[in-house]
Amino acid sequence: MSKKIEIYDTTLRDGTQAEGIAFSLEDKLLIAGKLDELGIDYIEGGYPLSNAKDEAFFKEIRKQKLQHSQIVAFGMTRKKGITAADDIGLKALQKSRAPIVTLVAKAWDMQVKVVLNTSLEENLRMVEDSVRFLKRKGREVFIDAEHFFDGYKENPDYALKVLEVAAGAGAKRLILCDTNGGVMGPEVAQIVSDVVQQLKVPVGIHTHNDCGLAVANSLTAVRCGAVQVHGTMNGFGERSGNADLCTIIPNLELKMGFQCLPANRLNKLTEVSRYIYEQANLNLPLNQPYVGVSSFAHKGGMHVNAVQKRSECYEHVDPESVGNSRRVIISELSGASNLLAKNEKLALLEDKTLVRKILKQVQDLENEGYQFETAEASFDLLVRRFMGNYRTFFELDHYRTVIQKTNHAKPVTEATVKIIVNGKVEHRVAEGDGPVNALDAALRIALEPHYPAIKDMQLVDYRVRVVNARAATAARVRVIIESRDPKEHWGTIGVSENIIDASWLALVDSIEYKLLRGD
What we know:
By secondary structure, this protein is α/β, with parallel strands linked by helices. It has helices spanning 25-38, 52-61, 88-96, 109-114, 120-136, 148-154, 156-169, 185-198, 214-223, 245-255, 269-279, 301-309, 336-341, 343-346, 352-368, 376-387, 435-447, 499-517, and strands at residues 6-9, 42-46, 70-76, 100-106, 140-146, 173-178, 203-207, 228-231, 297-298, 327-328, 395-404, 412-421, 424-432, 458-466, 477-484, 489-496.
């Protein structure tokens, strides 16, 4: 059996310190449920003394029946000059009723003197008293040795003494923290090896990504004897972020032979990663390892041809092992292999003449500013037109948008759409937050009586880019619209010198793609 490495997730605490992230209580509870489904060992829920939301989290999470994960409360050792029993932070940790508590303790003598403004001896008493207090209250205690690597490099005896005191008081795990994210790999290897040799209590690792080394340093620590890895989903965290568990977990399991998650859970990783991005209201990064939208995307024709023959030519693991999927990108760099790789999805016949025609059309359109990498639904429609299985669902007579702006008032946008649907004229008007929103609303009002299926689709993203900026105000613009329904997420594109017309083209493609799917 593979050696078990414990996974400790701090997305709900350390991850929320990232700029632009603010989870609601409901968000935190939903994310905790997803992490439990994935099989994360420990979920750090927050610091119950810091705010009412974190305090409420520990109350509400007790109502959920988690199948695997254990909930952890985060806090600090007692303040200087008082007893552990009188410390309000420790009282809040006890009140949270979390079965496990992680205490941050200063392990760098400089920080003890300058930040805590106390003696090295008092800091040791603070660590010991706090651990013993929580142990007497029936809690398991992990010690986060803050700035451990910096402290060890300057005063190794004292940094080790902090760990020894915590272990002697009953701490179950000793976590070595690279709080500044500035330690190099060889230093991590040497220091973790030294600590593991000198202490009997199991060691963990908690790294930050300020040098881009958080994942690498975490893996190095495991190789040198650490049994617990701290990190956040998608690497969320303050400054440059924390170690990304979405990269660490598959590396440990698929590359290094360790067990991190229960059996048959790794293939949930991409789903959970993207769910958390959605809860955080952040766009998915294209190039995130393993779970990124482009992690297994192939654009060059030579690469696609090779992957079709042997996937390992350009894929280091099976995409499905982490719940991701292979994507073949259509662009001006594509060869026939790219189009043929779409064969199953698009029912594209292996007609070489047809393939060459489609490829030529793609290249011509991309020269005009089109880009099908994130607009596969528009590519689907393009192929359908060549194959003869495309149909229109309405005919445009005209559309018009009007924006009215008066002094000291928000602008009001109104769109009028006149179309012919199934032989009937539909002339509809709608207001919106902007011209595209208003056009979307008016078009839906006109179409929904004829095609009720569009009720469950929604526009989720809208992006504009100038294609030929040197043309100034006469420049051509590219509009990408992303839409989704309960079954699928898709992108469409429109290009025009007029931003409203480009938006209309992308919008129409989105609706036609939905209706042509026929579900």
